[in-house]
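Quiz preparation item.
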């Protein structure tokens, strides 16, 4: 049995899905903000119900990027039995705190509210994010019930994600108070807004009942230090939570395909084969088989 599961996980990590998924583009999960609050869906073609689902949140340090960045990953999972979604969210300046956080929670609430329509199990929804999107994913695991982080979208609020995968993400913004992107996102400096920096940090909300977390980071990341993932891992372990942490040798933060780097891989951990193998294993363990 274990050998069969390993073969299946290896095949999925390599991109060998069952069939191309049905793709649905630009679905409004909050119709107040136009394209900024839309998502794309990737549905298995067999019409089965109560499948595990994965919501992808793109990177860009809250100021750039869009849902297309995770299209290939969502397509891979959608073709392998998961319901997958990639979401836009408002970017700075419109997405200044707490707007982008509200959007991420609205996207999760929308998927759960439409579980029957899209054939997913609302109790088996993981969130995956990279960098700024990883930060949002991390908050979706632990910050429910915090008044200023709760949205007022049509789908309402929702409980925490059932599993969280955060790659090269920020988890403690109080350590990043001299970073322009963080100041722009939070609307001020750490000196001026210490309470906001604390409330906005996932590490501040860790609790024993947190869902399982998978943290991925590269040890060559000069944009978001691996200390961020290390602090989140420590907080989760101290609270008695379930957490895996994979730190890879040599990845940086940005993809750098085609660059002669002396054999080192400076691109982000998101697309590394090791990351995909661990990610699929984690999804299988935390959500169950699709």
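Solution:
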């Amino acid at each position: 049995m274990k050998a069969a599961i390993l073969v299946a996980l290896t095949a999925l990590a390599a991109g060998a899905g069952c069939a191309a998924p049905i793709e649905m583009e630009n679905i409004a999960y909050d119709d107040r903000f136009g394209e900024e609050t839309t998502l794309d869906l990737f549905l298995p073609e067999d019409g089965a119900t109560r499948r595990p689902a994965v919501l992808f949140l793109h990177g860009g340090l809250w100021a750039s990027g869009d849902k297309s960045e995770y299209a290939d990953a969502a397509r891979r999972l959608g073709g392998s039995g998961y319901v997958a979604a990639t979401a836009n969210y408002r970017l700075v300046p419109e997405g200044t705190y707490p707007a982008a956080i509200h959007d991420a929670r609205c996207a999760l609430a929308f998927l759960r509210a439409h579980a029957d329509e899209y054939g997913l199990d609302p109790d088996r929804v993981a969130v995956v994010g990279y960098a700024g999107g990883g930060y949002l994913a991390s908050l979706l695991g632990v910050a429910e019930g915090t008044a200023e982080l709760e949205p007022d979208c049509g789908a309402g609020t929702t409980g925490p994600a059932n599993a969280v995968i955060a790659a090269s993400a920020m988890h403690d913004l109080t350590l990043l108070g001299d970073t322009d992107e963080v100041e722009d996102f939070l609307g001020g400096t750490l000196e001026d807004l210490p309470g906001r920096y604390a409330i906005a940090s996932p590490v501040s909300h860790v609790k024993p009942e947190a869902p399982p977390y998978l943290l991925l980071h590269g040890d060559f990341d000069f944009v978001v230090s691996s200390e961020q993932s290390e602090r989140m891992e420590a907080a989760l372990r101290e609270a008695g939570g379930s957490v895996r942490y994979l730190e890879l040798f040599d990845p940086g933060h940005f993809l750098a395909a085609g660059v002669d780097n002396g054999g080192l891989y400076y691109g982000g951990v998101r697309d590394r084969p090791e990351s995909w193998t661990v990610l699929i294993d984690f999804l299988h363990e935390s959500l169950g088989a699709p």
